[in-house]
Write a structure and sequence with these properties.
232 residues; alpha/beta; six-stranded parallel β-sheet; 11 helices; globular
């Protein structure tokens, strides 16, 4: 236990990158194109955060690989419009400099990291690593993405915080025995996130960064020995 490190597991879509509404549009188009005309944009948005196959099951009650593939096709041109939330990269850097191991935990595919990391604008030295849907059999809201990250990177579950933006992130953290901080910039309101069990809620990465010292992340960082802070 003495060798375990404190850390922070960051969701990407809707938390660091302003992509949730792009995904909503892509899923709505994909589902309509594959015969699911009854699904609304609101329903699509509420399901963002669930991995693709699970999202389709959640919305339609069954499997539909064609819809999953069509979402990828619909989303590809929308990438031209994606942007990082203000101060997202600065938040990751601040966590790293405070001595926390910074890990991305995304329901996306491993190949998505090739465009996600540059889009965030964070330098590679800040990140200890990442877990993606390819690392697990079940992605969010199951805790596997988080528990694999905890084990792979030697994190202390009692000193590791999940940062996300959906009720599915909260559920995954809770099932994994981890505390969570949520942001509302993905489109889910503060009350709903708190009701789901989030420990803290902020507006966006910039808001969390502004309150970093008084947040759960600040609490965890203060427990980091001085000779560890600032290095991976």
């Amino acid at each position: 236990m003495a060798d375990l490190r404190p850390g922070v597991l960051f969701d990407v879509d809707g938390t660091l990158l302003d992509t949730n509404y792009l995904h909503t549009l892509a899923w709505w188009r994909a589902l309509r194109a594959t015969g699911h005309d009854e699904i609304t944009m609101q329903q699509c948005h509420s399901a963002i955060g669930i991995a693709s196959e699970g999202l389709v099951r959640h919305l339609t009650g069954g499997e539909d690989e064609e819809a999953v593939d069509r979402h990828s096709e619909e989303y590809e041109p929308l990438k031209a419009d994606l942007t990082a939330f203000p101060r997202a990269a600065d938040l990751l850097r601040a966590c790293h400099d405070a001595g926390l191991l910074v890990v991305l935990a995304t329901s996306g595919q491993e190949g998505d990291l090739d465009w996600m990391v540059p889009a965030i604008g964070v330098s590679e030295d800040v990140l200890a690593g990442a877990t993606t849907s390819g690392d697990v059999e079940e992605a969010k809201p199951e805790p596997d993405l988080l528990t694999v990250a905890v084990e792979r990177y030697g994190l202390d579950p009692e000193q590791t915080v999940v940062v996300g933006d959906t009720v599915w992130d909260v559920a995954a953290a809770e099932r994994g025995g981890l505390r969570s901080i949520m942001v509302t910039c993905g489109g889910i309101g503060r009350a709903e996130l708190l009701e789901a069990g989030a420990d803290e809620v902020y507006d966006d990465p910039a808001d969390l960064l502004a309150h970093l010292d008084s947040s759960l992340l600040g609490q965890v960082a203060r427990a980091v020995p001085n000779d560890v802070a600032g290095r991976s």
